[in-house]
Structures are given as C-alpha cells and as structure tokens.
Amino acid sequence: MKRILSVHRAPEKHWVGDGFPVRTVLHSKMDGASPFLLLDYAEPIRFEPSDKPRGVEEHPHRGFETVTIVFQGELEHRDSAGNHGKIGPGDVQWMTAASGVVHEEKHGTEFTRNGGTFEVAQLWVNLPAAHKISPPAYQELKNENIPVVEMPGGGSARVIAGDFNGTMGPARTVIPVFLWDVSVRAGSRLDLPDPSGSSAIVFIRSGSVRLNDTEEAGALELAVFAVDGEGVAVEALEDSKLLVLGGEPIDEPVVAHGPFVMNTFEEIRQAVADYQNGVMGTLAAR
Ligand code: MN
After folding, report:
1. How many C-beta atoms lie closer than 10 Å to residue 128's C-beta?
2. pTM (predicted TM-score)
3. What residues make up the domain containing 55?
4. CA-to-CA distance for 129 and 63, rounded, in angstroms?
5. How many domains are there within the chain?
6. 203 Cα: distance to centroid of ligand 1 (angstroms)
C-alpha cells in the first residue's frame, strides 16, 4: 500500500467573492499534492433568496485547469471563449484555462431567486510547461454522463476522470488524472485502485474513515499518500463521503501569482501584461 505522507486538519473558512465560503484543503506547497495546485471546498451552507447573483466577478486564469464540482445548488459560468454554462447537483465543469480564459463564476439565477443549500468544490490541476499556453478548452460533464460504480462492501463511486476498475470517467484530461466522488457505508472497507507512479489524495467531505489500517481522518480532513507504492485502503467508521484524486506528478517549478500559475517569474509578468492588454479576451456585456 502507499505510505501516508500527511493528514491535514480542517483549515479556516474564507470567502471567495461573495458566493463561496471555502476552505483551502489542499495547496501546492503540500508534499505529494502535484499535479494539483489547490482544492477549495465549500461545505453545505444555506443561502437566503436574493435578486443579485452572488459569486466572483470577471477574472482571468492561465497555466492550469479549474475543475468545479457542484454537490448542491447551482452555478452559472460565462467566459471570454463564449462558453456559457449552468451546472447543478452532480455536474462538473472542467475548464482548461491554458493560455488564458477570463470568466465569471456566479450562483445560478434560479438558485439565487429561491435560495437553498449550496455545496461545491473547485480543484486546480496544473499543466506541464508544454501545455501552459495551449488553446483553452471547456467541458461540461453532466451528472447523467458520469458513470457510477457500485462497490461490493456497500457504497459507490462516481467516476469523473480516470479509470476506476475498468470504468472510465468522461473527462478528457491533459495529463493522466483521476477524480472519484465516493460514498461509503459505515463498516465497509474499500480498496481503491490507483495506478503506481501517481499521487493519491483522499478528502473527507463528511463522516470519518481509517486509512491503510492505521490513520483516522474525519470530516474536512485530507490525507496525502506517497507516489511510490500502489493501493489505498479506506475503512468507513461511519457513513462517509470522499473525494479521491491523484495524477502523474509534474516535476517542474511552480510560480503562482493569484489566478496565474506558471514556471517562471517572467512568465507571470507576461501573463499579467497579456491580461491587461486584453490578450485573454473579455466578457461580453450582459
Ligand atoms: Mn475562476
């Protein structure tokens, strides 16, 4: 089995824009995080009805991918490439910003009007240098197109990306990445398949688990495993919901500046200049 490198306790909550009360449960300085740069999680929260959609106003990204998973509620997205999407419970938006995308991320119109419970996660997947300034891409993965694998011990995995025991997720990824939305029943034990040479991370959205027969982790905690070795064992101590992810580590320098993640400071300066000069495009007026 893979060695557990670390278990991170729940970090404090902060607001992204006025719509996303998140905890940054994974970041690029954590040993074993590559190819991921960040995982923000907003646990279930009730929003009252409003007439103005909450969220994040127009902003750019370059050099990586943003993957947004809606568990509850509704999100609306518009970007400079002309994509406009609405994603609801179970849906995933996989946006390859690459050379540059300008977008806004808001609560959906209907959700805003009616209010309701909101729960969402956003993952940042790094891109290797060779792909950082490739053309952007946009995938909307609807819930009904995400395969669900029932597990013998009780529980199921929604396969968003990568291969789960022969079931492939629908996401087209630049580098090998897996992302599974897993539910486990109390008392069941799962042996999660994960390829050798790949990072592996388990985030506990709710419940509590014992990992590799040794370490326990509870709600809002995150375990990072070593790249070496193969296999992660999860024993559910209560009904639990997990995000399980990993990928081929990118062994290149990471220079991050807000919404830009490149390999050098010069590339960051270029990204800022390109954004200011409109090279990444702009949003059409509403
Ligand atoms: Mn964004």
Report:
1. 14
2. 0.97
3. 4-247
4. 8
5. 1
6. 21
